Every structure is written in structure tokens, then in C-alpha cells.
Amino acid sequence: MYVIADMNTGEKLLIADTRDELIEKAIKINEESDFDLFGFTYIGKEKKSPIKESKFVWIFLDKVNENYIAIPERDLTDKARYIIEGKGFDLFADSVLEGEVKSYMAKKAFYAKPVKYEVVPVTLKEAQQFVDQYHRHHKQPQGHKFSIGLQINNKLIGVVIAGRPVSRHLDNKQTLEVTRCCVIEGFKNAVSKLYSSVCKAAKAFGYKKVITYTLATETGSSMKAVGFKLDVISAGGSWNSKSRQRVDKHPRTPKFRWVKNL
After folding, report:
1. How far is 204 from 202, CA to CA, in rounded Å?
2. In what order do the strands lie in the sheet with 12-16?
């Protein structure tokens, strides 16, 4: 049994045996009356407490390009919302319907399609400026072998910078290191798309291996999604020493090194 209910009172508004049947009923109500199910209800399989089963999902719609972004509320910060709306997307619905159902309704209402990421070449300067503006804990690297950008509707939303391994012990001319990967908050799967693109480019250049580092506090899910394996857990620390004085501009916490053999 599937149910749509008022998120405040728990009052059941629609009940159906299947998810598809429930969606069709909801669409019909919105087409035939002024009652708006989009903004005030949730959807889910009915159990003892349907509210616990619900998932808040926000839909942002770009009517000009006829596409949309569906973002779980748990992943949507105020900053991410501000940036997304600055890219030409307007809030279409902030109810607690599940993402796939909301997406279906968005397409049904506006014939919109999911937003597509476009891989584009970027210069080092463009990538550096993007990193300085959006990266959470790193500044721009000094050089690169190449950089790749990711955009939607001709607007840049992420970059990846690849270069020689920072550690000279790993710099064997066959290994490429992703020194920076930076994506604006709120764009799901964009990081995985960038890592996938840099691996394809590295293989085309003849590299045998790609490595990258994450903080120990990060899950590494984006790397796992494109085939990276956890290689080494480093102790972190400072680059500064008596023989060579340096100012640390990076986190000194433990790090994970990930590797993908091409």
C-alpha cells in the first residue's frame, strides 16, 4: 500500500496499491483542481509511521532549457541553493516526495528532462580561479598536465586538475595525479563524472595509473564509483622542515591515497 499524506497532520490524502497508480492519481488531482500536492505532502510505502519513510527532495527547474535538477534536502545547503538558482534554475517544488516520483511529475508538468553534464576543456588559469573560489580546503596548484571542466547550460560547475605526482617517489612518467577536483555544492554525481573523464584522458595519453588523495574524513564514494581502490592511508603532517622552511596551505590531517590502474 502506498500513501500520500499531509506532512503536518499525517492525514491520508491518497491511497493506492502500487506506486504508479498513486502517481497517476496525484497527477490527475493537480490537473483537475487547484489543490497542490507538490508542495505540502510526502509519498512513501505505508508502515507504522509513514513520515519516517519519507524523503525530502527539492526540484529546481530551468524553463528556458527545459531541464531540471532533483536534490535530496540532506544534500542541499543554503550556499548550494544560492549557486543553483544563480545558474538559472528556479525552485519548482520543495515537498517530501521521493526523487524519482518528483522527477516524473516535473517531466509531466513541464516536459523537462534531467540536466546533463557536458565535459569541456579548460585552461589552467580557468581551473585555478575556479578552485580558489569554490574548493573547501585547498588553493590552486601551480601547474598541470591538463585540466577538464564540467558545465551545464554553458555554465561551469566543476573542474579537475591533473599533473605529475607531488611525491617524487611516485613520479615515474607513467603515473598521473589528480591534484584538485572541485565541484559546486548541490550537483550530484558531478565528481564521479570528472574522475571518469580524467581517467579516459590519461589512458589516451599513455599513462598506466591515476592516483589521488582525500582527507580521511571523506568517504571516497566518488572514487569508488569509477573504479579507484584505496591504496595507502598516510599519517598526514607538515611539509615544513628545518632544512626547508614552508608554510602549510593544506590540511595536515591523515589522508587516503586512491589508485586506478588503466
Report:
1. 5
2. 12-16, 2-6, 41-45
